[in-house]
Amino acid sequence: MFIPEYLDMSKIVQSAKIVRLFEAVEEHGGTVRFVGGAVRDTLAGLSGFDLDLATDLSPDELVEACQDNGLKTVPVGIKTATIGVVMDDKILEVASLKRSKIKNNGRRIMEFTDDWSADASQRDLTINAVYADLHGNVFDYYDGITDLKNGVVRFIGNSEDRINEDPLRIMRFFRFYARFGKAPIDAESLNACIKLKDTLRGVAIERVRDELFKILTTPNAAAAMKLIYDNDILAYFLPKSHHLGALDRLSKLVEDMRFEGNFLRRLFVLYQPSPAQAENMANTLRFTKKQKEIFGRWTKIDIKPEFLNTPKSRLQLIYRYGKQFCTDKVLLGAAIYGYENINISAILHQIENAVMPIFPLRGRDIVNAGISGDRKIGKIMDKLEQQWIDSDFKMTRDELLASVQNQ
């Protein structure tokens, strides 16, 4: 389906260099169009998307077209025939059109084509197979616009074929359902995911994990995860959770407060792990060292609601653990425990704007007071700092030094 001047391209085209790219391709007898997220999200009224493009030039032809017009290129994906075009310190990915072909030995291969409809047939979902040119003309080969409007998420063509081409599409199906689904889930697509769920075992855990994290940061993450649990989609490495309600509370809370979705927070409320469970999960999902540290720290340090209601205790917590940790724990607590009688928004605002007190002593002050030995000095400093915190940060440097001899 061709729809002329359907999109406001000012929402997509933010750089004059993009126009140069289109002109460069056209000068070499080709066509380039936006596809996937940029078109889909613009149609849905969303922003902040990455730009993906497709062209009927081969990768070599695209590189030549860019070089002739002063545009720098870098190789991005050999298997996917994707070239990166450098734009304002960012890289735009431009993929050459492809179609599937069965060889005499029965093997399926991908080959270049100039047929846009054939390329669309290789994409995963109807809502991801909508193209747009620089003038806002839209090319919709599988009625993706209608599906997007109606909240229908479904595979293109035969669902099992699409999944067998890339089993990770199972996870992408649930991700896009969580983000755009409004109607009852497409039965054929869901049944194909259930039937072929074991194919996910052959996908690198990092790829599955990344899709899982993207699902968790959608507004309807709890509904998507319920479908995943009910159908044992990830049972081979992820246990079922009994805390979908807490995940839903957190999703709504951060959406209402316009907080950025954080997959670690959402995973935590979904499982509410013990320290040992948190470590196992971090290892299974191959967290970074920093992610593992954050996740584990949440399990070991608790913040009770009564502390949140007391400004004095709140500042002590912020001083001891930092603003980000306290923000995370307030959000986690609100999702897990409810905190119905606590103004979460006000507390988060106070944490963000808290002025951090500065401990007035240094190690050399203890040395000058006649104390020696690194270990002893460290212990005294810890005790004095705790006294200072307990005084609501009011003890002066002289008062602290006066108590050194009593240590």
Key terms:
407 residues, Beta Polymerase, domain 2, eight-stranded mixed β-sheet, 11% strand, elongated
Number of strands: 10
Question: Roughly how many Å apart are the termini?
Answer: 82 Å
CATH class value of one domain: Alpha Beta
Proportion of residues in helical segments: 40-55%
The total count of helices amounts to 21
Secondary-structure class? alpha+beta
What's the layout of helices and strands?
Layout: E1 2-3, H1 16-27, E2 32-35, H2 37-43, E3 52-55, H3 59-68, E4 73-77, E5 82-87, E6 90-96, E7 98-102, E8 108-112, H4 116-121, E9 130-132, E10 138-140, H5 144-150, H6 159-165, H7 169-180, H8 187-195, H9 205-216, H10 221-230, H11 244-256, H12 263-271, H13 275-284, H14 289-300, H15 305-308, H16 311-321, H17 323-337, H18 344-353, H19 363-368, H20 374-390, H21 397-402
Parallel strand pairs: 3-6
Antiparallel strand pairs: 1-10, 2-3, 2-9, 4-5, 5-6, 7-8, 9-10
Helix pairs in contact: 1-3, 7-9, 7-10, 10-11, 11-12, 11-17, 12-17, 13-14, 16-17, 17-18
Structure description:
The protein has helices spanning 16-27, 37-43, 59-68, 116-121, 144-150, 159-165, 169-180, 187-195, 205-216, 221-230, 244-256, 263-271, 275-284, 289-300, 305-308, 311-321, 323-337, 344-353, 363-368, 374-390, 397-402; strands at residues 2-3, 32-35, 52-55, 73-77, 82-87, 90-96, 98-102, 108-112, 130-132, 138-140. By secondary structure, it is an alpha+beta fold. Among the domains are: 1-145, Beta Polymerase, domain 2; 274-355, no CATH class; 363-406, no CATH class. An eight-stranded mixed beta sheet has the order 1-10-9-2-3-6-5-4. It has a two-stranded antiparallel sheet with strand order 7-8. A hairpin with a 5-residue loop joins strand 7 (98-102) and strand 8 (108-112).
